[in-house]
Amino acid sequence: MRGLRLLQGLVLVCILLIPLLIFLFLRGFGENNYEIPVYYENGTNNPFKECPIGDSTQHYIPEFTFTNQEGNPVGKEQMEGKITIVDFFFTSCPSICPIMSQEMERVNDIFRDNPNVRILSISIDPEYDTPEILQEYADKHHADAGKWDFLTGDKLETYRLAKCGFILPTLDGNGIPDDFVHSDKFTLIDEQGRIRGYYSGTDRESVDLLILETKILLHGNE
């Protein structure tokens, strides 16, 4: 009998502790402890050995201006104060670009109505990818200029921007689609122009992480 009462007492204590434990758990879970890294706080160290030697301070995306699918200038100025997701591609790409563009279309659908998020897809084959070609490609992926811009520009500037600005490997294929080399990465840029993350544009889970971390950056700016 005494043992039964002791057992009942322990059960009662546990029942009384459950709300407290739930409260403590939710309070800890509700605190925003998710930190998104800031890349290249001490400079980029010129990883491709083709960029000007910089200093050891925070790296920012440099100034650039290209032409979008509607023939309008778009570049660093349009990124200021926005969270921007950037990839490098080309419309005749026979391998990873179709998958990347499908995944970027999914990202675009999620942030379509958010004016604080922009997407830039920059062609590494600007000699072929004219604004007219890019407009056809944009229409295929339901992309509106001003929200999701497909950009073309000077070839040397494009490759310099990829390697020295976004720190992504890029190799000119000289017009032969199979010879072009570019990264599959989507790059997340914050409103200050700092790189905050790289995500595989061919991997759905990695793109899901990009979507999550973009939302977290947006929440931090509210």
Instruction: Let me know the average pLDDT.
Output: 84
Q: Structural class of the helix and strand makeup? A: alpha/beta
**How many helices does DSSP assign?**
6
The coarse silhouette is globular
Helix fraction? 25-40%
> How many domains, as an integer?
2
Instruction: Say how many strands there are.
Output: 9
- In the predicted model, the low-confidence regions spanning at least 5 consecutive residues are 22-29, 175-180
For the biggest sheet, the summary is: 5 strands, mixed
Rg on CA atoms, Å: 23 Å
Let me know the CATH homologous superfamily of the largest domain.
Glutaredoxin
User: What percent strand?
Assistant: 15-25%
How far apart are the first and last residues' alpha carbons, in Å?
Answer: 60 Å
Order of helices and strands: HEEHEHEHEHEEEEH
What is the CATH fold-level name of the largest domain? Glutaredoxin
* Strands side by side in the biggest sheet: 5-4-3-8-9
Which CATH class of the largest domain? Alpha Beta
CATH architecture of the largest domain: 3-Layer(aba) Sandwich
Blueprint of the fold:
Blueprint: H1 2-30, E1 65-67, E2 73-75, H2 76-79, E3 83-89, H3 97-111, E4 117-123, H4 131-140, E5 148-151, H5 155-165, E6 170-171, E7 181-182, E8 185-189, E9 195-200, H6 204-220
Parallel strand pairs: 3-4, 4-5
Antiparallel strand pairs: 1-2, 3-8, 6-7, 8-9
